[in-house]
Amino acid sequence: MALSFARKAAMAGAALAALGGVSFGASASEAAPGQAAHHSASGQAAHHRASAPASVAAKRSAPAHRQEPQVVTQVIGGGRVDGHRWSVALEFHRTLPKGYTAPKLPDGTTTQGTSLLCQRMYIGGIRIDHQGGPWSDCQTVTGTQDPGASGGMGLWGLHDKGTSGTRLMVSTPEAEVAYGVVSLSDGTHVRATTVKVPGTTYRAWAAPLPGGKTITTVDQYDTHGNRLTHDTYWR
CB under 8 Å to 130, separation ≥6 — which residues? Predict the structure, then answer.
């Protein structure tokens, strides 16, 4: 049955008023505060009832505290050398992983620490020192800022303990070291930038060394190009 224009207008006005009491009551009160005295007691009660869910929703939508990841992996470097893919990453475990057993020191004690820092190195898809199990090339540290994890450097490879074939030079330098340069006997230089694990002070740089090459010097520099260390004993 068709409705007259007047009746349609009346029904639309009633619907709009009903919606205004629930959805637009707060904005209407803020736009015209002088009209608040004309609201009935039942209108005020409806306004308060409508406002309550909004405050609850606001509390529920507040972002929850983000938990820190238990394991953080940071790629230090990667590419190709001697036709093989290579990569180095630092892997930080905030707590000691299940199944990990701290190695014993020569005096019979075990290393102390609440966290674990692992050096994951690959050449041609094979992880260096994988024969030692999942926790080879890992060390215990205390938290995210253990100074004992800095200052190391080494040559790593799949053959002869890193003394021949394709190798990787990996340094875990002090905080001021920005990059390292490995100079080879054929006059070439390999430069590698220090990369830090997010949320920690742990850092490293890694440089690939082709097979058959001999190292003459390894130098480390700060951000201004000042040389901080100079080593000539690597081969």
Answer: 136
